[in-house]
Predict the structure.
Amino acid sequence: MKTVNENNTLTIFPKGRIDSNNAAQTENEIMSALDSAKAENVAVDAKDLEYISSAGLRVLMKLRKAIKKPLPMVNVSRDIYEILDTTGFTELFDVKKALRELSVEGCEVIGAGSYGSVYRVADDTIVKVYNVGSPELIERERLMSQRAFVNGLPTAIPFDVVRVGDKLGVVYELLDAKTVSQHITAHPEKMEEYVRKAVSELKRFHSIEIEDELFEDKKKPFYELIDNISAYLTDEEKDIVIKYLDSVPDRNTFCHGDYNFKNVMMKDGEILLIDVGDVGIGHPVFDLSGLVLAYRIFAKSGQAFDRIFGYLGIDPALADGVMDTIVSEYFDTSDHDEIERYIKMMMPMAMFSKAYHGIRRYPDMNDKQTVTPIVDRLVKKELIEAIKSSPKMDF
């Protein structure tokens, strides 16, 4: 039996079958490896384990008693997991199923962003493939989707974490729907209809109160950002930024976190959310400012057409109309000056989001040569100037 002793962890790789014919020999090999390794931690990698009988389970139980701590079991096949679950061993061991392999070669890309891409793998199935992320973080997004659904949000139903090449993904059940951006691109003459439906639903979502500790306060990462860059700000600059964030009313209502219309599906006029990794609770400004960041700031950033289209999923020439319609629907106004006032009101939080995403790419806050110009541009110039010129938030 193969064993590996690295980083103070002995990993045991059982292979084939463990039953009454070889259970005693398997036990001797495992206990011998345990005595020799003197490792603090032990884990079982079951990727090559094909079957285990009650005799084999007793071997694992003896190992569990010998190490006197939880026994992790990873890469457990569905058949082995069913045996462990039926016998109650999933309650005794920390069992992780093996990830199913999935190919997205030739599949339609229905959305792409900094965190990953979404592919349609069948008429009723999509997979979100992550550029980066640990299995724990990806499992958290899967759980967030479930929690959002339970709390009354129309989310796509996640049912599996898979491996796509060297990346990880989450598979969602999804009826044959298209993103709002795809609908707008296919029928630009109906842009206002699609946007008003999506924004009307967003406004409804913002009335849903959430009592769930998994949903983080949307203010939290922004306070953390201020703390991380405090060495680069004067006391006056820090005071301006903190006072602005303090002025945003506290709410325990739903916030999506990235309500870009490329992340919002529509089928027969019904809205469905496919990206809930950033959901939390807070004031609606956190969602609305994200739309300002996308359809007003990024759309006018001077980036290449392909880059803007890839991010928004629509022709940048439509962005102004989309933004005006968003504000018109949400705040029930058709007055152009009033629409611009609301956009200007949300601009500081849009700049806050831009600063947050721009600075978080540089984890070493002590690298002054790199961080200083980023903070000067994103915080001292854009954010603080937006705060100073913004009307008081009144919604």
About this structure: The domain at 178-389 is CATH 3.90.1200 (Aminoglycoside 3'-phosphotransferase; Chain: A, domain 2). The first helix runs from residue 23 to 37.
